[in-house]
Amino acid sequence: MTVATAVAAEAVTAHPRRARGPAVAVLASAGLVATLVAAVLVGTADIGPLDVVGIVLRHLGLEALAPSPPAAPLVDSLVWQSRVPRVLLAGVVGAGLAVCGAVLQSVTRNPLAEPYLLGVSSGASTGAVAVLILGWGTGAVALSTGAFAGAVLAFGIVLVLIGGGRVANPARVVLTGVLVSQFFSAVTSLVLMLGGDADSTRGFTFWLLGSLGGARWPQTLLAAGIVLAGCAVCAALAPAMDAFELGWDAAAALGIRVTAARITLMTAAALVTAAAVAASGAIGFVGLLIPHVVRILAGPGHRLLIPLSALTGAIFLIWVDAFARTAFAPHELPVGVITALLGAPAFAIVLRGAAAR
Hints:
Blueprint: H1 3-13, H2 21-41, H3 49-59, H4 73-107, H5 120-134, H6 139-161, H7 170-195, H8 198-208, H9 217-236, H10 238-244, H11 248-253, H12 258-280, H13 286-298, H14 302-326, H15 335-356
């Protein structure tokens, strides 16, 4: 990073709320640890906290620290094979969507940008419905694979339409994403209408609304690897996103390779979104709401905004999922429905507060 770029980044991040950013980061980190522990204890089955802690510690190789005797195999499987990967996947998806929202809001210079802007969600839906309806595979692994392939295909089409390396202005990116999204939505509806029965349509609709019920270790670890890698790329380009706030020409004058940085960020965001959608379906409002909340708390500098968005998004979605699986037991609510019900009024409050400033 050049001296000029560092100065530009410092100018962008010289915000009245920047001083409390490290304190917010410490609180968010502690909050995530507490959330992970508490959420694993939450469930409809009557399993004591000491039993849950003991099961987790034994699987981590810390049997000497276990506060309870070994649990029954069924209870052990319920905690380790269901609750723990589900809580971790909720954190991974929430972190990934929040970071992608922050990145796309910077790259497109559009405060309403969110992870599904590039048609990735619609492409994932088409891939998933193709697997379910056309019989190209069975099970959660096939569904996730189809969704990921569809998401990547949709983003590839977006890149081709906006000119690849000669990426166009933000308005063209947004319009192209809307165009591709509408196209894949139409394909999904056509496949459902021509080949779907009542059961498959109901299952696809539940997946489309967002659910973490199918979380298992292989799926969780794969999604975690993709999301962590993508978020690391975005964090490394935080100075470039700070320079973008000064305008494209100013960023280029400061030594930023604007086109390369934007394409890299868009690609990373698309792959992270694809992994998240493939693992959980379409969960809205996380990527739109969380970055704005973090900006209010810690300022707009991306060095803090990216990691804080990841931490806050993870905490938010873990608790939303805990509510979804326990509030109306034995019935489970789609996570996307709850995020929309919470996100819409919360975002209205954020907008009102921002306007008051």
